[in-house]
Amino acid sequence: MFAKSFTRATRPAQLGIRRYATENSSSRNSNGLLYATGAAALGAGIYYYYSTPKTPLPKADAATKPSGQKTFQGGEQGFLDLKLEKVDTVNSNTKRFRFALPESGDVSGLQIASAILTKYKGPDDEKPTIRPYTPVSDEDSVGYLDLLVKKYKGGPMSTHLHDLQPGELLSFKGPIPKYPLTPNKHNHVALIAGGTGITPMYQLCRAIFNNPEDKTKVTLVFGNVKEEDILLKKEFDELENRYPQRFRAFYILDQPPEKWQGGKGFITKDLLKTVLPEPKEENVQVFVCGPPGMYKAISGPKVSPKDQGELSGILKELGYAKDQVYKF
């Protein structure tokens, strides 16, 4: 009897998620909802979210475009050395690094969506280590760019970065073009991320919500191990408060704390079926970025930076087409 009662009680909330994922923004309810796997967790999440007051943030003004020189111009331009200005500790294994651009009035030159290459060659290394990163500072930020980097055991670049001190240099090159996103290119984008795979997703969100003419809806599904691993959560919470009819974020933890109200375990087919826009919806695009195991389960891996590979995994099972999915 409890199971039947619970089903009746939660069905309206689950339908609310689906309506958000498929209806036009003008016809949606502005209340948010946290998804949790498992009956008890889902019920608790519904109660928590609807009982927690949401204070709308003031609308953002249109971004003022700077006129500074673009530091990274691609093409035949080589690596440039930038000076580390400051380091902020985010959690036990992640730091935010601010690098000064060559001139105080310069901008990075990155476009949406693109990444940047870092290069370091240690004294005993036969060849340099080169790694791509997506800056978390705005593309129009004047005089600096920020990287958010998690330190991995045995990771040569992340270890080097975490050992850097203000005043030291690191080599950069870019931009490395990824997905060409333009305002209102899609009606609805879904972002599926794991760990530091959140940085290109944040870049997409900045581009969409910094433009007052862009009306794209965004759904984020973000999986991590522990609560402290949820990077940029404050920024996503602000977006959810400011644009409740256009942005939803769903967090899943493998090792959640006792009072965690979000999803538990891994990103599952049932979760994605519930919260993502349906593949038959007009002009939907799904983006995926995370560790290899997540790619394998969600979308299948990409072959190379220029070859997306075949679509497989959960997204194929749910009916999405290859051209509806982009793997960072």
UniProtKB/TrEMBL annotation:
<feature type="binding site">
    <location>
        <position position="132"/>
    </location>
    <ligand>
        <name>FAD</name>
    </ligand>
</feature>
<dbReference type="Pfam" id="PF00175">
    <property type="entry name" value="NAD_binding_1"/>
</dbReference>
<keyword id="KW-0812">Transmembrane</keyword>
<keyword id="KW-0560">Oxidoreductase</keyword>
<protein>
    <recommendedName>
        <fullName>NADH-cytochrome b5 reductase</fullName>
        <ecNumber>1.6.2.2</ecNumber>
    </recommendedName>
</protein>
<comment type="similarity">
    <text>Belongs to the flavoprotein pyridine nucleotide cytochrome reductase family.</text>
</comment>
<feature type="binding site">
    <location>
        <position position="158"/>
    </location>
    <ligand>
        <name>FAD</name>
    </ligand>
</feature>
<dbReference type="InterPro" id="IPR017938">
    <property type="entry name" value="Riboflavin_synthase-like_b-brl"/>
</dbReference>
<dbReference type="InterPro" id="IPR039261">
    <property type="entry name" value="FNR_nucleotide-bd"/>
</dbReference>
<feature type="binding site">
    <location>
        <position position="199"/>
    </location>
    <ligand>
        <name>FAD</name>
    </ligand>
</feature>
<dbReference type="InterPro" id="IPR001433">
    <property type="entry name" value="OxRdtase_FAD/NAD-bd"/>
</dbReference>
<dbReference type="GO" id="GO:0006696">
    <property type="term" value="P:ergosterol biosynthetic process"/>
</dbReference>
<keyword id="KW-0472">Membrane</keyword>
<feature type="binding site">
    <location>
        <position position="131"/>
    </location>
    <ligand>
        <name>FAD</name>
    </ligand>
</feature>
<dbReference type="InterPro" id="IPR001834">
    <property type="entry name" value="CBR-like"/>
</dbReference>
<feature type="binding site">
    <location>
        <position position="150"/>
    </location>
    <ligand>
        <name>FAD</name>
    </ligand>
</feature>
<dbReference type="InterPro" id="IPR001709">
    <property type="entry name" value="Flavoprot_Pyr_Nucl_cyt_Rdtase"/>
</dbReference>
<feature type="binding site">
    <location>
        <position position="148"/>
    </location>
    <ligand>
        <name>FAD</name>
    </ligand>
</feature>
<keyword id="KW-0274">FAD</keyword>
<dbReference type="GO" id="GO:0090524">
    <property type="term" value="F:cytochrome-b5 reductase activity, acting on NADH"/>
</dbReference>
<keyword id="KW-0496">Mitochondrion</keyword>
<dbReference type="InterPro" id="IPR017927">
    <property type="entry name" value="FAD-bd_FR_type"/>
</dbReference>
<dbReference type="Pfam" id="PF00970">
    <property type="entry name" value="FAD_binding_6"/>
</dbReference>
<keyword id="KW-0520">NAD</keyword>
<keyword id="KW-1133">Transmembrane helix</keyword>
<comment type="function">
    <text>May mediate the reduction of outer membrane cytochrome b5.</text>
</comment>
<dbReference type="InterPro" id="IPR008333">
    <property type="entry name" value="Cbr1-like_FAD-bd_dom"/>
</dbReference>
<feature type="binding site">
    <location>
        <position position="157"/>
    </location>
    <ligand>
        <name>FAD</name>
    </ligand>
</feature>
<dbReference type="GO" id="GO:0005741">
    <property type="term" value="C:mitochondrial outer membrane"/>
</dbReference>
<feature type="binding site">
    <location>
        <position position="133"/>
    </location>
    <ligand>
        <name>FAD</name>
    </ligand>
</feature>
<keyword id="KW-1000">Mitochondrion outer membrane</keyword>
<keyword id="KW-0285">Flavoprotein</keyword>
<feature type="domain" description="FAD-binding FR-type">
    <location>
        <begin position="77"/>
        <end position="182"/>
    </location>
</feature>
